[in-house]
Write a structure and sequence with these properties.
The chain is α/β, with parallel strands linked by helices and about 325 residues long. About 35% of the residues lie in helices and about 15% in strands. The chain is built from 12 helices and 12 strands. The chain has helices at about 15-25, 35-45, 60-65, 85-90, 100-120, 120-130, 155-165, 180-185, 195-200, 220-225, 240-250, 295-310, and strands at about 5-10, 25-30, 50, 70-75, 95, 145-150, 170-175, 190, 200-205, 230-235, 255-260, 280-285. The chain has a 7-stranded parallel β-sheet, sandwiched between helices. The chain has a 5-stranded parallel β-sheet with strand order 2-1-3-4-5. Strand 7 (about 170-175), helix 8 and strand 8 (about 190) form a beta-alpha-beta unit. The longest helix has 19 residues, at about 295-310. Bound molecules: nicotinamide-adenine-dinucleotide (NAD) and D-malate (MLT).
């Protein structure tokens, strides 16, 4: 009998990837969801590969517990839940699926943007209480507004294209892209974050969470915003300082804030974003940016195919380390 690779799946992933694993004759599949950190260490002990989304913390200790671990598959983009240096030290390859959920995240960001400027969730909740309050829900148009995109990568670029279709003036802050990319997207690049923040009506964040971007939008930066601006974060929790943003909302420095991501997920009852006094000006969703059938199918396929290629010693793509 040939080799059987033991693969552990710890979160709900698209059926496409799961089916590939189920049908593979050289794979012994275990699905174990919502594991505690201790249980994860037990499950991971003898597996060759693990497939996760953002809800599984792959810290150095957990990676160390994977005595036979060869590959970590991430059915999504962000790898901030994985200790990459710890994996690299052990020769474990980390694979992600960088483009599979770009459109899903882009579209959710636009949903969030329209929700905050037009108060759509609040208007819906109000009508569901049988209130008929048209005047309260008078928002602003996207057309003619100046949009700052922080991070002009895959999602940021797709935001730019759609924002121009909405008649917005698009500027971006991203010190790592070429002027040519900005020109191709017909976006004006600003050379300091402050320059962008001080002139934008709406700011949307699309960077990874790194040492550099952690708390990038902190108390000081939030004071640079144009008074009454809107802020959207559908990238990663922790890029926006959560306490500072609620202060800015309370003081009216921000008109409204929309976010899909949090510094600690899931939210607890005492999270500042759940406070009653700001609920009319905040739109929150439970990290659903990538949750379309199309995106989940694609990211699971990309992650699984490349994980199996690593195990089978075949050419693979999308390794973020080694
Ligand atoms: P990407 O790598 O294509 O683009 C990120 C961009 O950020 C790059 O252009 C990079 O140069 C830029 N950047 C890095 N550091 C920066 C800094 N300090 N200042 C300004 N720009 C900086 O990534 P992407 O696929 O566009 O994803 C963007 C973010 O969205 C990631 O954090 C990803 O995890 C997140 N995401 C969230 C969801 C969701 O479910 N809400 C879904 C998909 C992706
Ligand atoms: C990602 O980085 O791909 C997103 O946060 C989506 C996810 O984790 O499913």
């Amino acid at each position: 009998m040939g080799t059987k690779w033991k693969v552990l799946v710890t979160e709900t992933v698209g059926e496409t990837g799961l089916d590939i694993l189920k049908k593979a004759e050289d794979v012994e599949l275990t699905e174990a969801y919502s594991l505690s950190a201790d249980d994860l260490k037990k499950y991971i002990a003898d597996v060759d590969g693990i497939l996760t989304r953002s809800g599984t913390t792959m810290d150095a200790e957990t990676i160390d517990a994977g005595k036979s671990l060869k590959v970590i598959g991430r059915a999504g983009v962000g790898v901030d839940n994985i200790n990459i240096p710890a994996a690299s030290r052990k020769g474990i390859i980390v694979i992600n699926a960088p483009s599979g959920n770009t459109i899903a995240a882009t579209e959710l960001t636009f949903g969030c943007m329209l929700s905050v400027v037009r108060m759509i969730p609040q208007a819906c909740a109000s009508l569901q209480r049988c209130e008929w309050n048209r005047n309260k829900f008078t928002g602003c148009q996207l057309n003619g507004k100046r949009l700052l995109i922080i991070g002009l990568g895959r999602i940021g670029g797709n935001i730019a294209v759609r924002a121009r279709a909405f008649g917005m003036e698009v500027i971006a802050y991203d010190p790592y892209i070429t002027q040519k990319r900005a020109d191709n997207l017909r976006v004006e690049l600003v050379h300091s974050l402050e320059d962008g923040l001080s002139t934008a009506d709406i700011v949307t964040v699309h960077t990874p969470l790194t040492k550099e971007t952690k708390n990038m939008l902190n108390e000081d930066m939030l004071r640079v915003f144009k008074p009454g601006a809107y802020l959207i974060n559908c990238a990663r929790g922790g890029i926006v300082d959560e306490k500072a943003v609620t202060d800015a909302l309370r003081e009216g420095r921000l008109t409204a804030f929309g976010t899909d991501v949090y510094s600690s997920e899931p939210l607890t009852h005492d999270h500042p974003f759940l406070a009653d006094d700001i609920k009319d000006r905040i739109v929150i969703t439970p990290h659903i940016g990538a949750n379309t059938h199309e995106a989940q199918s694609e990211v699971s396929r990309i992650a699984v195919e490349n994980m199996l290629a690593v195990l089978r010693n075949q050419p693979y793509e999308h390794a973020v380390n080694l």
